[in-house]
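Reopening closed ticket. The problem is back. First fold of the pair:
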Amino acid sequence: FHPHRPDGTPFPVEETPTVRALTVGATRVDEEMVVIGPDGRPMHLAVSAIPVRDTAGQVTAVVSLFRDVTAAREAEQLKDDFLSLVSHELRTPLTTIQGAAHILLTQGDELTPMAREMLRLDIASESERLTRMLKNMLALAAYQAGRLHVERDPFLLQPLLRTVVRETERHYPGHHFTLALPRGLPPVEGDEELIAQVVRNLVENATKYSPA
């Protein structure tokens, strides 16, 4: 019985839930560990350790509940693999569509005003939106799996907010947007792409359920 953490690192005996509940005297300790089953395959176990106290309040024993969550973890892995496959297969055609739309918009001198507007709003804008949706799906899967990498770099909020508002305006031409920013707003530190996703979701949700 040599448990590991879900990330593959060893699980020292003194840090297992049962030992911690016995020695530290916590009310309850919950952890997930991975062990090798009788068939040689890894088993994911959700462990809950609850200390038992005597009349003086001293911990005399521990009741540990082991629940097999292997099937759930395998399902999560299948979902992650599917999202990665979908993202990989869709990213190339989306990039091609965006590139072709950009070339037509910048070099298509003979386009009618209606064709140019369809290129700008329908093809270029919606393909960018699909790309953002894919990024959101992958970010959500990475977050749920504990693999989301967050950058910490300085950036300016003003251009980010203006870009998000312009993007949303194109999708909701019937709405009027006003962006009010204080002067001298200092740089912030964080993940610019993730912050943009948060702001974009907030603005789009507000737009969907607001009058013009």
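Second fold of the pair, where the issue appears:
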Amino acid sequence: MGSGRWSARDWATYSSRHIHSKTSTTGASGIYSSSHMVDELDPKKMKNGIRESRDSVDNPNSTPIIIGLDVTGSMDRVLDAMARTGLPTLATEIYNRKPVTDPHILMAGIGDAYFDDAPLQVTQFEADIRIAEQLTKIWLERGGGGNDFEGYALLWYFASRHTEIDSMEKRGKKGYLFTVGDERPTAKIPAEHIEKVFGYKPQTDFTSEDLLKEVSRKYEVFHLIVEEGSGFRYDGDEVLRQWRDLLGQRAIRLKDHTKMGEVIVSLLQVLGGEDKDKVARSWDGSTSLVVREAIKDVTPVGSGSSGLVTFD
């Protein structure tokens, strides 16, 4: 998947009908209208069990970008902001700033496999307005539980074993994977959870460290820690410590959830070798401050770690 190109005109038409016509007082509920997981986002019902990012006439040098959003109860404001401003900012600025070529964006909803009916929902890789159309089909289950973590590592498993990407297969270039949430990292993924999400049961359980090492052969992996979320407000020091232990400086502090799109674009720019100060200054006002804090410790790929965890 991944034909077509994002355009401001298509976004204006879609958003006026389906997003900005919904008042902010309804929160994300007015935008994400599904009352259950729809079949097309169910990992058990993916065609051939795979999501594909393939080169096309429109996008001959495709770059896969996966963004996984925590859809448990504490993330309502984040999800509302992603649909209203985060996604159009992300798509528009990637095309304007060109930190990567021919972006293919896959959106995912992440829940809790211990308690939720839909622990993982995944769209197709898309390059045009279908990104928004599929994003807003995600079911906001608003579940989760009292275990202080969510199923972020389920997305790592999916990306590693259930995506095929031309950027790696043809050019040896990794894609990019961002999870976004306010809780601690996933403790482990039992085989029973894989069966629940994907419909088959592997022979072993998985640790987050094992899955991270595996997915990092194919994707550059980051986590955006939402400091406004209840999980971080309650236990922020421990949330940050555990993510930093796992990801190093790829655990990114997101101080303002409305700047998520700008932070992701800026990370792509820095990974591509652009100067961090210049990138931060390219944004206006408070956005510049949020971006500067988020990217301050990140180094370009291949330029040395400086606290950045890397994987072979």
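Update: turned out to be a display glitch only; the data is intact. Residues 304-312 have pLDDT under 50 and may be disordered. The two ends are 28 Å apart (CA to CA). Please close again.
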